[in-house]
C-alpha cells in the first residue's frame, strides 16, 4: 500500500469510527431522555388531572350536601333528589366536562351531555375493549370512591376516546356521582412531542453525517495537496506530522493526568488509608469499603473518555456529597473532618457542583497526604459576604451573592509560592484546582505558611453562575 494511501486511511478511519461511536451514543442517549421525559410528562399530567377531578367531585358533593343531609318525608326526599339532579346538570366545565349520576344498579339518573341515556339501565354496557364500564364505576364508588379509566364517546366529536373518571357513592340515596376528563388531548400532545423528538434525533444524525463527510472531504483534500514527489519535502511534512502527533499525545496525557490526579488518585488514597487503618486496628469491616473504592476507581478509569461527573452529585447533591466525603475521611482519620453549610441551600449548575466537589477532593487529599493535620473544617457558604463578589469576576465587583467553599486545616502548612514555582510535579494539585475554578469563572485563594495550617477558598460570583449552562455537562 502506498504511503499516501496509508496516511489518508490513518487520518480518515479514526475520524469515521469516532463519529460512528458518537452517533450511536447520541442516539441511545436521546432515546433514553425521550422515554424519561415522556413518562415524567404523562405522570405529571395524570396526577394533575386526578387532583382536578377529585376537586370537581368534592365541589359537587359539597353543593348537594345540604339537600343530602336534609331529613324529611319520602316525598320531601324525592324533591331533594330532583333538586340535586337539577343542580348537577347545571354544573359543567370546559367543552367536554360534565357530571353524571347513576343509581347503584346501573340506571342513568342524570347525564347533562347525553340526555337520551336518562332512564336507561347500562349495567351490562361494555366498552370496545370488552370492559364493563358501568360496573367498574359503581364498584369503585362502593369501595369508597376513586379513579377509573375507560372508553366513552366524546360529546364534542362523537368519537370514542380514553377517559379518566372519578366517582363517589351517596349510599342513602342509592346514587353514584362522578365526572371525568378525556385523555385523547394529552396523548395527542405526547405523540406530537415524540414526533418532534424523533425529528430532532434525525436532524442530529444528519449533522453528524455532514460533519463526517466534511471531515473526510477535508482530510482527503489535505492528503491530495501533499506533494510526495520530493523526498525532502515529504520528510519535512512527516516530521511536522510526527511533532503534531507527539503534541497531541502530550496534551491527551496531560488531560488524563489531571483527571487521574483529581479523581482516581483521591479514591486510591482513601483506599490506602482504609487498608492501613484495617491493618493497624485489625478492623476487617473496613476491607469491603476498600474493595468498593477500588471498584469505583475502575469504573472512573473506564469512563474518563466520557468525562463523567461524580455519581454522588447525581444522587445526593453538592452539600450531601461533601458531607459524605467528609464523613468517609473522618472515619478513616485522622484528621477529624467537619462540614458546615451556611445559608439556605440553592440549586447550582451541574458543572459548578462538579468543580466544587473536585476542588474539595483535591484539597482534602492534600491535607491527608501532606499536612499532618488533626482537624479540618470545611464550609459550604451559599450566602457569602458581598465583598467577595469580585473574586470570581473582576468585571462584576458590585454583584452580590455566589457560593463559597472553604477548607481550613491546622496542619504543618507550606510555602505556596515555592510549591507552585518549584518542582512542577509538586504543584499539580494546586494548578488543577485553579484551572477548574477558572473554567467556571471563579477564583481560588490559598493562604498558608509553615507551622500555621492552610486555608483554601474557592468562590464563584452570582454573575458567573448565571452564565453557566444549566444542563448536565461533563466535568
Structural features, described:
Residues 388-399 have low confidence and may be disordered. The protein has helices at residues 3-69, 74-90, 133-142, 184-225, 231-281, 286-302, 311-316, 318-331, 350-371, 416-421, 428-439, 462-467; strands spanning 92-93, 97-103, 108-111, 146-153, 160-170, 175-182, 336-342, 375-381, 403-409, 443-448, 454-460. Helix 1 runs antiparallel to helix 4 and helix 8 runs parallel beside helix 9 (350-371). With 475 residues, it is of the alpha+beta class. Strands 1, 2, 3, 4, 5 and 6 form a six-stranded antiparallel sheet that branches. A five-stranded mixed sheet has the order 7-8-9-11-10. It is 57% helix and 16% strand. The protein folds into three domains: 1-226, PAS domain (Beta-Lactamase), CATH 3.30.450.20; 230-308, no CATH class; 312-467, 2-Layer Sandwich (Heat Shock Protein 90). The radius of gyration is 34 Å and the shape is elongated.
Rg of Cα set = 34 Å
Which topology of the largest domain does CATH recognise? Beta-Lactamase
Order of helices and strands: HHEEEHEEEHHHHHEHEEHHEEH
User: CATH homologous superfamily of the largest domain?
Assistant: PAS domain
Catalogue the unreliable spans. Answer: 388-399
Please tell me what the overall shape is: elongated
Amino acid at each position: 500500500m502506498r504511503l499516501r494511501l496509508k496516511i489518508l486511511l490513518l487520518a480518515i478511519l479514526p475520524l469515521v469510527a469516532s463519529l460512528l461511536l458518537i452517533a450511536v451514543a447520541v442516539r441511545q442517549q436521546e432515546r433514553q431522555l425521550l422515554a424519561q421525559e415522556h413518562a415524567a410528562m404523562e405522570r405529571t399530567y395524570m396526577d394533575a388531572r386526578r387532583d382536578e377531578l377529585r376537586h370537581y367531585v368534592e365541589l359537587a358533593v359539597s353543593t348537594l350536601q345540604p339537600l343530602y343531609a336534609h331529613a324529611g318525608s319520602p316525598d320531601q326526599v324525592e324533591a331533594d333528589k330532583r333538586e340535586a339532579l337539577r343542580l348537577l346538570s347545571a354544573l359543567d366545565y370546559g367543552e367536554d366536562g360534565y357530571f353524571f349520576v347513576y343509581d347503584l344498579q346501573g340506571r342513568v339518573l342524570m347525564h347533562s351531555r347525553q340526555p337520551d341515556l336518562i332512564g336507561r339501565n347500562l349495567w351490562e354496557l361494555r366498552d370496545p375493549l370488552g370492559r364493563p364500564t358501568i360496573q367498574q364505576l359503581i364498584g369503585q364508588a362502593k369501595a369508597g370512591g376513586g379513579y377509573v379509566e375507560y372508553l366513552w364517546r366524546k360529546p364534542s366529536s362523537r368519537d370514542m376516546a380514553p377517559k379518566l373518571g372519578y366517582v363517589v357513592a351517596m349510599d342513602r340515596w342509592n346514587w353514584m356521582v362522578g365526572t371525568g376528563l378525556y385523555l385523547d388531548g394529552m396523548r395527542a400532545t405526547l405523540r406530537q412531542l415524540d414526533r418532534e423528538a424523533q425529528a430532532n434525533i434525525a436532524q442530529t444524525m444528519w449533522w453528524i453525517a455532514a460533519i463526517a463527510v466534511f471531515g473526510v472531504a477535508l482530510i482527503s483534500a489535505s492528503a491530495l495537496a501533499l506533494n510526495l514527489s520530493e523526498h525532502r519535502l515529504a520528510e519535512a511534512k512527516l516530521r511536522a506530522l510526527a511533532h503534531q502527533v507527539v503534541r497531541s499525545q502530550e496534551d491527551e496525557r496531560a488531560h488524563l493526568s489531571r483527571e487521574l490526579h483529581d479523581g482516581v488518585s483521591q479514591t486510591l488514597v482513601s483506599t490506602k488509608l482504609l487498608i492501613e487503618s484495617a491493618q493497624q486496628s485489625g478492623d476487617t469491616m473496613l476491607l469491603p469499603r476498600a474493595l468498593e473504592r477500588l471498584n469505583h476507581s475502575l469504573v472512573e478509569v473506564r469512563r474518563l473518555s466520557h468525562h463523567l461527573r461524580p455519581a454522588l452529585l447525581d444522587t445526593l447533591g453538592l452539600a450531601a456529597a461533601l458531607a459524605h466525603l467528609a464523613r468517609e475521611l473522618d472515619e478513616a482519620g485522622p484528621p477529624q473532618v467537619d462540614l458546615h453549610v451556611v445559608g439556605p441551600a440553592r440549586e447550582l449548575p451541574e458543572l459548578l457542583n462538579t468543580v466544587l466537589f473536585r476542588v474539595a477532593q483535591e484539597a482534602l487529599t492534600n491535607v491527608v497526604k501532606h499536612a499532618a493535620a488533626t482537624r479540618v473544617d470545611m464550609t459550604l457558604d451559599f450566602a457569602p459576604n458581598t465583598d467577595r463578589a469580585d473574586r470570581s469576576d473582576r468585571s462584576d465587583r458590585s454583584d452580590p451573592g455566589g457560593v463559597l467553599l472553604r477548607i481550613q486545616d491546622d496542619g504543618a502548612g507550606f510555602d505556596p509560592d515555592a510549591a507552585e514555582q518549584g518542582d512542577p510535579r509538586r504543584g499539580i494539585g494546586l494548578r488543577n484546582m485553579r484551572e477548574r475554578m477558572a473554567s467556571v469563572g471563579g477564583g481560588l485563594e490559598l493562604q498558608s505558611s509553615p507551622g500555621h495550617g492552610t486555608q483554601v477558598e474557592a468562590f464563584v460570583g452570582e454573575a458567573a453562575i448565571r452564565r453557566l449552562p444549566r444542563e448536565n455537562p461533563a466535568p
